[in-house]
Every structure is written in structure tokens, then in C-alpha cells.
Amino acid sequence: MKALANQSTLIFVSLVIITLLYLLAPILTPFLLGALLAYLVDPLVKRLEAWHVPHLLSVVLIFLSLFLGVILLISLALPLIVKQLEILAAQIPHLLDWAQNVGMPWLLQFVNINTLKTSIPATLSKTGWVISTFVESGFAAIQSIISIVLTPVVTFYLLRDWNKVIAGIKSLLPKQVAPTIIQLSRDCDEVLGAFIRGQLLVMLCLGVIYGVGLSLAGLKLGLMIGLIGGLLSIVPYLGSLFVVIAAIIAAIVQTGTKEAVISVIIVFIIGQLIEGYILTPYLVGGRIGLHPVAVIFSIMAGGALFGFFGILLALPVAAVLMAMFRFFRKRMAS
């Protein structure tokens, strides 16, 4: 009976937290990202502390190292990005020509042009809708800038006071359920840490595989498409979808030959096979244990609640929820 009461308390607290997260969603992004970054970096701080480096100095050293690392990465990548953008700019006239002579005629086979002529002016005449959409976009842009500025600040302060934050949370736990919650937190930490580290490695490997593969296939924009696809692969299926569509369009615009398109498809298939049979099983594995349909639902739910950043955080949150489910199932079975 006592165990059932403890579980009811945990479920109630979880529901309250989820409700608060939903209500505060518009302002939570920098705090969630800051907490995630602090969580990822804290093991490095603890490693320095194990070498008898003071805590605050460890935090400052790690924070500065990350900042300088980002600056170095940008400085190294910037010339490459500029070169790829120059290639993209040179391809724009060809892309517009292709869209006018090939893309639009193909599209008009499936779209009634008369319907478009009547619906577009009617839509544009709704001035209030246009203005409200513009204002909402402006607020969204301002909110994104604020999030970008606040995230490193939140990360630093959380990292500095991480031990105090954890100790404070533990002190708030009821004594009856404290051991249960602490053990559950350790299980979630193990699953979440392993998943995030593995997913980052998968992103890096996919970016290199697609970038190098498409470049070797003769695609001038292959490196840019591959690296962007690698970054987007943090959202399941989005990176793959971007790579295959963007690379095929680039191949058609650049050469217009079937051979180029076939080469792109071969690179894409090889990348998918490596990801599906080597990278994901070995680097991420079945740590989440979610069905593919549940993965898609998690991503859509994250996007609906928190926008783009919700999509990014959907799978880590799903990993934690799955760890909680396994924990409670084990407790009920025992």
C-alpha cells in the first residue's frame, strides 16, 4: 500500500511538471538548452576537479575552451563555406532556368493554373492575415535572438552552480521517495548521456560520408549538402530527406544527366546502409527502445509544443521517458 502511495505521488509530481513545461513553453527554450549543455559539459568539469583544479576555475577553463573551440571551428570552416556559397551563387541562374523550363511545366501537370490565379489574389487580399503573420514572424525572430544570447549565459551559471542545483533538488525530495527518484535519475542519466553522445557521433559521421561521397560523385555543392544533411540528421529522417532531394536537384541543375542522378542515389543508399547497419546500432544502439512510429510521434509532439527546438529535444526527452517507463515496470514487477 505504501509503495502504491509513493508511485501515485511520483506520477502526480510528474504530471504537474509536464503541465508547467507546457504552460511555460514560449520562454523555456534558452533554459532547456542551457541545462542540456551544462549537463553535457559537467563531466568534463568533474574530471578537472579530480585533478585538484578548483571548481570555479574548472568551469571557466571548460567554458573558455568550448568558446575558443567554436571560434576555431568557425574560422576553419568559414573559407570552405564561402567557397561553397560562391558555387551556389554561380548555380542560381542555372537553377532558375531549370525551374522555369523544367520544374514549373512538370508542376503545372498536377496543379490547375486557373485555380491558382483566383486563390492567390484572394489570399493576398486578406491584409490582416498578412500583417499578423509578419508580426508573429518578427516576434519569433526576436525570441530566437534572445534565446541565442541567453543560452550561453544560462549554461555558464548552471555549470558553475551545478552541484548546488543537484543538492537543492535532492533536499526538496520527500524522504520516502528520495531513494526511488535518485535511482531513477541515475538510470535516466545513463540512457540520456549514452544516446546524446552516440547521436552526435552519428551526425558527424553522416556529414563526412555524404559530403565526401557527393563531392567524389562530381557534385560541386556536395560538401555543403552533405554537412547540412549531417547536422539535420539530429532530427530522424529530416537529414536523409534533405540530402536526397537537394543532391538530386543539384545534380539535375549542374549536369542534367541520368548518370549524375544515379551517382547521387548510390551515395545516398550507401550512406543509409552505413547509418542503419553500422553507425546507429553500434553508436546509439537500442538505448531508447522506441518503435519507429513512436519516434515520429515524439518529434511531432515536440515540434507542436516547443517549435524547432522541441523537435531537437524530442528524442532525448523520449529516451528519458522510456527509461522512466522501464524503471516503473521493473518496480511493479518486483
UniProtKB/TrEMBL annotation:
Protein localization: Membrane
Protein family: Belongs to the autoinducer-2 exporter (AI-2E) (TC 2.A.86) family.
Protein source organism: Aquicella siphonis
Protein name per its UniProtKB record: AI-2 transport protein TqsA
Entry keyword set: Membrane, Transmembrane, Transmembrane helix
Major localization listed first in the record, in broad terms: membrane
Pfam families: AI-2E_transport
GO CC, any one term: membrane
Chloroplast keyword on record: no
Highest taxon of the lineage: Bacteria
Membrane topology listed for this record: Multi-pass membrane protein
One annotated GO biological process: transmembrane transport
Keyword Transmembrane recorded: yes
Membrane spanning stretches: 12-41, 53-78, 139-159, 200-228, 234-253, 260-283, 295-328
